[in-house]
């Protein structure tokens, strides 16, 4: 007889194990068995909850995106209206998402999005939300908020890419992106 209330906990454990397993492997070349073992359950149970590896990957991608959205929203809630840009950048590098396993998983999800329609859709949602948030924050601070938003979004994604590839010290990432954003705002003549 199934244990009542265990499904959400087990699904969450499998999603967390997926992020950790992809982070450890540095690729999507992981098996459902490896993910299930890391989560402390059988691969049959993992298949029961998700159906297959693609669905587990998509659930992990959604989890990272949801955590990222929460982190940015929390940072924006605490920010003064004229500090929205800095809050978005700080939220983008919150330790909840900006850790070695999550950045490695995120890098691999970019690759996954090139060949999976749903993963591509999730990535486009993330990109549009980030762009929209940045444009809103930049509108009162510069003449070309659309262009500046593209440059800052590319900087954020670039830092994630380097963090995943270098697996080194990631401290100071938000401050580095804020410094680039500030320099961009001071120059005021740029093209994306």
Describe this structure in words.
With 192 residues, the chain is mainly α. The chain has one domain (6-187): Tetracycline Repressor, domain 2. It has 9 helices and no strands. It has helices spanning 6-25, 32-39, 43-50, 53-78, 84-92, 100-113, 117-138, 145-166, 173-187. α1 crosses α6 and α8 (145-166) runs antiparallel to α9 (173-187). The longest helix has 26 residues, at 53-78. The model has no long low-confidence stretch (mean pLDDT 92).
Tag the structure with descriptive keywords:
single chain; 192 residues; mainly alpha; Tetracycline Repressor, domain 2; 9 helices; 75% helix; elongated
Radius of gyration, taken over Cα atoms and rounded to an integer in Å: 18 Å
End-to-end Cα distance: 59 Å
Task: Just give the CATH class.
Answer: Mainly Alpha
> Under the CATH scheme, which architecture would be assigned?
Orthogonal Bundle
Count of structural domains: 1
Principal-axis shape: elongated
Mean pLDDT: 92
Low-confidence stretches: none
Q: Give the name of the CATH superfamily.
A: Tetracycline Repressor, domain 2
Main sheet properties: none
The total count of helices amounts to 9
- Tell me the strand percentage band: under 5%
- Number of E-state strands: 0
Helix content: over 70%
CATH topology tier name? Tetracycline Repressor, domain 2
Q: What's the oligomerization state?
A: single chain
Order of helices and strands: HHHHHHHHH
Helix/strand-derived category reads mainly alpha
């Amino acid at each position: 007889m199934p244990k009542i209330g265990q499904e959400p906990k087990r699904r969450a454990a499998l999603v967390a194990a997926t992020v950790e397993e992809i982070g450890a492997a540095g690729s999507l070349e992981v098996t459902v068995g490896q993910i299930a073992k890391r989560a402390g359950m059988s691969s049959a149970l993992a298949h029961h909850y998700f159906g297959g590896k693609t669905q587990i990957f998509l659930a992990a991608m959604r989890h990272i995106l949801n955590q990222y959205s929460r982190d940015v929203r929390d940072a924006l809630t605490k920010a003064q209206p004229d500090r929205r840009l800095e809050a978005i950048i700080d939220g983008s590098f919150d330790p909840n998402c900006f850790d070695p396993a999550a950045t490695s998983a995120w890098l691999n999800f970019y690759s996954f999005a090139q060949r999976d329609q749903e993963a591509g859709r999730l990535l486009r949602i993330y990109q549009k939300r980030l762009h929209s948030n940045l444009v809103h924050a930049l509108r009162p601070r510069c003449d070309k908020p659309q262009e500046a938003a593209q440059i800052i979004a590319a900087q954020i994604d670039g830092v994630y890419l380097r963090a995943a590839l270098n697996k080194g010290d990631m401290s100071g990432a938000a401050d580095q992106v804020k410094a680039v954003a500030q320099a961009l705002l001071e120059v005021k003549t740029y093209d994306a």
